[in-house]
């Protein structure tokens, strides 16, 4: 039949995300055999649905329901409609709880009939409690600047977050030379923010004692957090893919994190994490560096880094082996806090995003990839920096109803 060649060999145009190629092809072959045996008429409906991506109404595409309702593909058992929605539409789909049939679907899984509709465009995706929503990266078609100029106006830069364009992914090979760590200065006095109040009141200093833990790191597989959150205090922390049970605080081995719902695609990615990434926190300087130790690249989204380099706020930078990147600069953050405090509460609160850094291993996301958001990557971490949040909280706490000018942050 003419559709067989399209559905069997044309997977380049339907393939999404990180679903394992071999497993996906076996799933397609299995579907073809069942349709040819039980429902050849549905081949045309499936072909049309895939070609127009659901833009036009299509009929149900059904296969027989097994005794337990599940379908086995290469030692993996799952519900049929989940399998083909994962293959054709959502590679990060976890379970049938995230799917809801459209009203016109007569043989949806929930109907309990002897036939099950596996038309991926007869189902819509719904949010469920406890699952992290996707962080979308807007589209962008302009090439990155050849030379980085001064950072743009913060107000205009923050407004870019609301655009519908997606930035190009940036490669450390093309943008950065291998960096040397800056010399650590002498420990300064306690950091403080000073507000410019009316002359009668004088200046109010708000001191910030250094916190023992400088960050909290969470590990995710697709859109689900796996394992406990880790609070780090060591100035150098390595996140790798091994199973080192060491508890000295300077290493996080992702191989120790267990997930009963882990797919073969995620397992394959975890095996390539290897030596991972080293985070170096220069405490007295307030800067954070990330160095790729793995043979596979790491992908980093840091709004603070993007602002300092005049990139779009949501740019994702690719970091290859032995390259390092300054992913947070406290000095620049405190300068931005001054500017935002003059603009009011909302502008200051927007800086919260600058204290969060997202980093994926092996697989990237963004305009150059099929994965459009970080929650579609198999293995990634989210780093919450404590000090910037503390400073921001202090500013917001002392901020009156109307914008308060700030003279300096020392």
UniProtKB/TrEMBL annotation:
Keywords (A to Z) from UniProt: Cytoplasm, Metal-binding, Nucleus, Transcription, Transcription regulation, Zinc
Residue ranges of every copy of the MH1 domain listed in the record: 1-132
Cell inner membrane is among the record's keywords: no
Family matches, as SUPFAM superfamilies: SMAD MH1 domain, SMAD/FHA domain
A GO term, aspect molecular function: I-SMAD binding
Cited Gene3D superfamilies: 2.60.200.10, SMAD MH1 domain
Domain MH2: 214-410
Keyword Transcription regulation annotated: yes
Any single biological process term in GO: post-embryonic development
Single GO cellular component term: cytoplasm
Localization (cell): Cytoplasm; Nucleus
PANTHER family: PROTEIN MOTHERS AGAINST DPP, SMAD
Family, per entry: Belongs to the dwarfin/SMAD family.
Entry protein name: Mothers against decapentaplegic homolog
Species this protein is from: Mesorhabditis spiculigera
């Amino acid at each position: 039949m003419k559709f067989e060649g399209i559905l069997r060999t044309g997977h380049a145009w339907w393939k999404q995300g990180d679903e394992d190629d071999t497993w996906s092809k076996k799933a397609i072959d299995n579907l073809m055999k069942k349709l040819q045996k039980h429902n050849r008429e549905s081949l045309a409906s499936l072909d049309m649905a895939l070609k127009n991506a659901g833009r036009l109404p299509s009929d149900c595409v059904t296969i027989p329901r097994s005794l337990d309702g599940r379908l086995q593909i290469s030692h993996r058992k799952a519900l049929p409609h989940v399998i083909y929605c994962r293959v054709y539409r959502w590679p990060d789909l976890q379970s049938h709880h995230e799917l809801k049939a459209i009203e016109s679907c007569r043989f949806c899984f929930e109907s309990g009939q002897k036939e099950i509709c596996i038309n991926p465009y007869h189902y819509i995706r719904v949010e469920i409690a406890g699952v992290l929503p996707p962080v979308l990266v807007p589209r962008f078609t302009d090439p990155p600047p050849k030379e980085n100029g001064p950072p743009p106006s913060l107000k205009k830069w923050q407004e870019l977050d609301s655009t519908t364009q997606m930035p190009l992914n940036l490669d450390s090979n093309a943008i950065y030379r291998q960096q040397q760590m800056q010399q650590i200065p002498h420990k300064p006095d306690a950091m403080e923010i000073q507000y410019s109040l009316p002359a009668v009141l004088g200046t109010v200093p708000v001191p910030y004692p250094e916190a023992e833990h400088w960050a909290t790191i969470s590990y995710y597989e697709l859109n689900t957090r796996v394992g406990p959150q880790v609070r780090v205090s060591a100035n150098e922390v390595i996140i790798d893919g091994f199973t080192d049970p060491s508890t000295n605080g300077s290493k996080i081995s992702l191989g120790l994190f267990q997930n009963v719902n882990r797919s073969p695609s995620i397992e394959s990615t975890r095996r390539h994490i290897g030596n991972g990434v080293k985070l170096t926190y220069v405490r007295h300087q307030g800067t954070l560096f990330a160095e790729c130790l793995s043979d596979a690249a790491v992908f980093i989204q840091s709004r603070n880094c993007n602002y300092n380099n005049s990139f779009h706020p949501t740019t994702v930078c690719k970091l290859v082996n032995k390259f390092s990147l300054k992913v947070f600069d406290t000095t620049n953050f405190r300068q931005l806090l001054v500017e935002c405090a003059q603009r009011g509460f909302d502008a200051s609160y927007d800086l919260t995003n600058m204290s969060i850094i997202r980093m994926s291993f092996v697989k990237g996301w963004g305009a150059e990839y099929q994965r459009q958001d970080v929650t579609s990557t198999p293995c990634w971490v989210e780093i919450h920096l404590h000090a910037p949040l503390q400073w921001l909280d202090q500013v917001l706490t002392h901020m009156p109803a109307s914008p308060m000018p700030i003279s300096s942050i020392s």
